[in-house]
Amino acid sequence: AAPHLRPSTDLITEFNINDLELFNFSSNKWVEYQVELTEVRDYELELRYSSFIDATIKFSVDGSDVAIEVLPNTNSVWMSKSIGVRASAGRHCIRINVLNGSLSLNNIIIK
Which among 45, 69, 75, 89 would be 20 to 30 A from 38, CA to CA? Predict the structure, then answer.
């Protein structure tokens, strides 16, 4: 089964109190985001997540693996984690794949 959407349980949000979060985002599940980047450079993907166990996630850009990160257990408290990614200008597909563990994902900010 795929991750599910629900109204966010994150009480601190910069965007909108009507944010949605992905939950039940666990092993062998993935999501993809289409993004448009303006220049070739190093970007930061800032994830806002919550978990009750450690989760290992893999990031891919346009089908190429770019990073594997462990997101530590947050005891279900919302936290942020930044991951560095080098990318060119243009449209890209970013895939986040949970290799093991489980988490909820509120948002991703590209900086």
Answer: 69
